[in-house]
Amino acid sequence: xxxxxxxxxxxxxxxxxxxxxxxxxxxxxxxxxxxxxxxxxxxxxxxxxxxxxxxxxxxxxxxxxxxxxxxxxxxxxxxxxxxxxxxxxxxxxxxxxxxxxxxxxxxxxxxxxxxxxxxxxxxxxxxxxxxxxxxxxxxxxxxxxxxxxxxxxxxxxxxxxxxxxxxxxxxxxxxxxxxxxxxxxxxxxxxxxxxxxxxxxxxxxxxxxxxxxxxxxxxxxxxxxxxxxxxxxxxxxxxxxxxxxxxxxxxxxxxxxxxxxxxxxxxxxxxxxxxxxxxxxxxxxxxxxxxxxxxxxxxxxxxxxxxxxxxxxxxxxxxxxxxxxxxxxxxxxxxxxxxxxxxxxxxxxxxxxxxxxxxxxxxxxxxxxxxxxxxxxxxxxxxxxxxxxxxxxxxxxxxxxxxxxxxxxxxxxxxx
Amino acid sequence: xxxxxxxxxxxxxxxxxxxxxxxxxxxxxxxxxxxxxxxxxxxxxxxxxxxxxxxxxxxxxxx
Lengths: 416, 63
Fold this sequence. Notes:
The complex is a heterodimer of chains A (about 425) and B (about 60). By secondary structure, chain A is α+β, with helices and mostly antiparallel strands. Chain A is about 45% helix and about 10% strand. Chain A has a single domain (about 5-415), classed as CATH 1.10.630.10. In chain A, the strands form 5 sheets. In chain A, strands 2-3-11-8-4 form a 5-stranded mixed sheet. Chain A has a 3-stranded antiparallel sheet with strand order 1-13-14. In chain A, strands 5-15-12 form a 3-stranded antiparallel sheet, with helices on one face. In chain A, helix 14 (about 290-300) crosses helix 16. In chain B, about 25% of the residues lie in helices and about 20% in strands. Chain B has 2 helices and 4 strands, in the order βαββαβ. The termini of chain B are close together. Chain B has helices spanning about 15-20, 45-55; strands at about 5, 25, 30-35, 60. By secondary structure, chain B is an alpha+beta fold. A two-stranded antiparallel sheet of chain B has the order 1-4. Classes of the chains: A alpha+beta (about 425), B alpha+beta (about 60). The interface of A and B includes residues 355, 363 and 373 of A.
């Protein structure tokens, strides 16, 4: 169910990953799946900002990579020339399988106005500040329970047993997935998002999820509940019920958009705190810093690179972009631009001037940003409350998922 | 001090509300407005400036 619009993942250091031809010139032949880029995209962006701030590649189709804050923001705001109908640069399996069930993609993220406008309006209230406050209690209980399950072990994979366990369970609650299904559901989502190198497992998870949603939609037609899926089914558009493909696409979006993105942010933040004892101790000593620190960690380790497709031939900052070209929305790179952030490569927990665009910019601003922020804050608070002292077991054992969602896939830490 | 949120620029990042909940209200769709007609109570000017400086859409202005 996911492949058509699923951001591509890769992994570096010790894991299986796509074999990519070595990059000789990042300016004209970049590759976001390159092992060096997955491990350290920051130095690549630094170099490009000095030599060629909008790089280009012909790998997997003509694609552009902006690296400056101002350019990324300008591209995000120009929805007329840069469409969201293609948000993944490279389909997982090399071609785009047809999925008639999801004929409309995953609106609103993969839609332009007008479909974008009304589907987004349906979703936003589910992720408003007030609504998200209501999810904080269950998130805290969940995080505390996870920490309790491994705190005495002395060592844990903070990605697999903590970060990756949180967002999917919270979103399952929002979608109205029965609590007793949460473990199974989490397993399917991990199959799809974390096992790109195991197509069979990936397909199994995707099929199970799609079957599950189709069955849930049928059930809610007769037994509507107080959940998002029921509300979507009850919504009328121009006097007729919403097309079921739009309901399923929107539900699928809600499910996947907040999962590996958020767990990547949680994992990267724990990776930073594991390796930076000064920051860790400061955050433990000054918990009131947490809201600013969360924004700063989101800036420094933004997980998500979206994409756009060029609608018609256009020139942008001197680059001849052709209809059909892809443009990577390099929000993580924008957030490391020294022209926009003082000391951009340093984490400053109480950074006061921080217009980061980790959640994008313009009309596609992440609809779940309030939820993601809350989950990141609560995950860090509950971890630090029980485990104020911890460090990386061995930096060489850390593996990173990369491509369009970057975060640690495996993060062994020693708990003191 | 008086501030205003431009409704055409605001995209619902809610950074202002997170930094200065005393000065802003955010509706169910994320749209932010300055409370009390944008009048900033004495003592909260720094918070207002912090909100202005952190809006990714440059949607908040001092009047």
